[in-house]
Amino acid sequence: MNKKKKKTHVPFRLNMVFFAVFVLFSMLILRLGIVQIVYGEDFKREIERTEDVTVNSPVPRGKMYDRNMKPIVDNTPSKAITFTKSQSTDTKEMLLVAERLAKLISKDSEDDLKKVRERDKKDYWILRNEERAREKIKEKEWAEYDEKKLDDKAIYNLQLDRITEKELNELTKDDLEILAILREMMSGYALSPQIVKKDVTPEEFAIVSENLEMLPGVDTTTDWERQYSYDKTLKSILGKVSDSEKGLPKEKLEYYLARGYSRNDRVGLSYIEQQYEDVLHGQKAKVKNITDKGGNVLDTQVITDGQRGKDLVLTIDMDLQLAVEKIIEEELANAKQQPRTGLLDRAFVVLMDPNTGEVLTLAGKQIVKDEDTGKTVMQDFASGNFTTSYNVGSAVKGATILTGFNTGAISPGTQFYDTPIKIAGTNPKKSWKAGLGTLDDRNALKVSSNVYMFRTAINIGKGNYKYDQPLYLEPEAFDTMRNYFSQFGLGTRTGIDLPNEMVGFKGGDTGPGLLLDFAIGQYDTYTNLQLAQYVSTIANGGNRLQPRIVKEIREPVMKNNEVGPVLNEFEPVILNKVDGKPEWFDRVQEGFRRVMQERGGTAYGAFYTADYKPAGKTGTAQAYYDGPKRKNYDQPPEVMNLSLVAYAPFENPEIAMAVMVPWAYEGNQGHHANNDIGRRVLDTYFELKKKRLEGNMNPEQPVQEIEEKEEGTELLEEIEDETEQ
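User: That's the sequence. What structure does it adopt?
Assistant: Structure tokens below.
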């Protein structure tokens, strides 16, 4: 009898094991394929991000000098303490560091504690009282959390809402100091140094340096602040720089981030600092942080050393600037002693080289009430030269004459009898003074005849004037005159290398009487810088030059008392050549000369003794007040604006000037602050030039601080009550 062979299950089980292993390996290979093919690049970038991170460290900004190489804006170094958080640093770790740091430094000033918000206090309270914070959530809410109906953020917001004022009052002064430090530490970005405290004392700097091992992420460094050698002089033009706390402005955040800036970098916010940000901000130091996968910094390597920003040499002459500002202050104070000057609060002066466009002085002063002291003070308002505009009056009559020549409305030597113009249904329009007689173009400028300009404008508009009859003028005459005026810079941007330049306002109506007003500067508005460009164009024979505030860009050097080599020197830029024959400009220049050098000229009394032989044109415009006190009136008061344009010497002009005194007085008669300021300013320019040529004043030496004259201060105090009215 044959025995049956016993079947074994081993091969079957072994096959099942092999099959299971095959399936698992297939799944593993598939998963690796997905990781490698689908997510490979993402994981590669993540590893690179966490293992090799480049950080840019800010450097000091470039300096600014005046045209004689006197420092205007510099950087003052100060000791600082920074904190750099790694990508894995959590809030509890930062709290521990903040507690240790609070024992070594002081950060409990009024300004520091003001920055601590109620939300910061609540966050800190939760950190300190985790169990009590947990108890503020009801069981039902915890159940909803477990059921995923509430998330972590919702739970945290409930805790914040339920913290009482009494509980917040539990925070001690020491807690608030720790919180002030923690707040600065948390406001930074991963691997970017964040300033915790500036202006650190030597003692604090030393003790923190000695204890860096127990303060992970903390470091001691040197920070910088902008230093202004002339205090508030020209401050409105130099511009502002953001601080490290605010960092990049929100409205330009993407713009700066795309150019390699960090969020807490300081940038120029206005005027020169903003306009030349790319030059001033410098080349940032690059540091590579080697980190592990947890984001902890293992090593730091310097890739490139930073270099502070390039330096700017301005066209401004600070000796002249200071002197002109003083003149404006004194003459404004003097004018305020005159009757009907309650609305007068500002004056402006521009000095410009008519051959290059370089602006030697950009001065403006405004009378304001100091918010802190309540006293009346004169603050810098240099920017008002190109950010505010006014009716300027007869100063523009040179452009009117040249427009007449260019359009064929008048010819050199054309004469008109100065008698009032009367359009049907309107009041007579006349000159400021009766009995001026028959005038040609040159003498019309000399005595500032309105009627001559009216007749010129009527001819430009192809009108047929008859006394007390309707007058029709071509509406296109406004465009004709504006287009020609713009060739001088009037009613258009001058092109100055500063932001926020104002064009001025153009009247919207086209009535015939308004064209006559336009011809004497009493319709459209212009800035004082436009006046300076206009008179420079007349002085040099028709070249409209771009005004410049920056003369050179220079390479930065390490030594404070040295100036680096020139990288870029800006050449004069002719924006356009005014249409007109040389002999036409000769006629207007001669008219301007007669204004100041011949008896009967409107500025003769102020300038006839000047040995530098000036030429120019005065302006008085009837206008409506639209200043800071406008809200006090139902209807805007009628005021007089005073202006003056000039250049000197007449034969070979080297300096051009524009003076603007808006809202000088109410009524038909008043002071002559425009002429008083203009005479003193030109005297100062030529006196300063003479001293330098004689060697009595070395432009390379620092300017001694000018002491404030008691007279000006006393006058300002006397007008304090009047300015409130």
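The chain has a mean pLDDT of 87.
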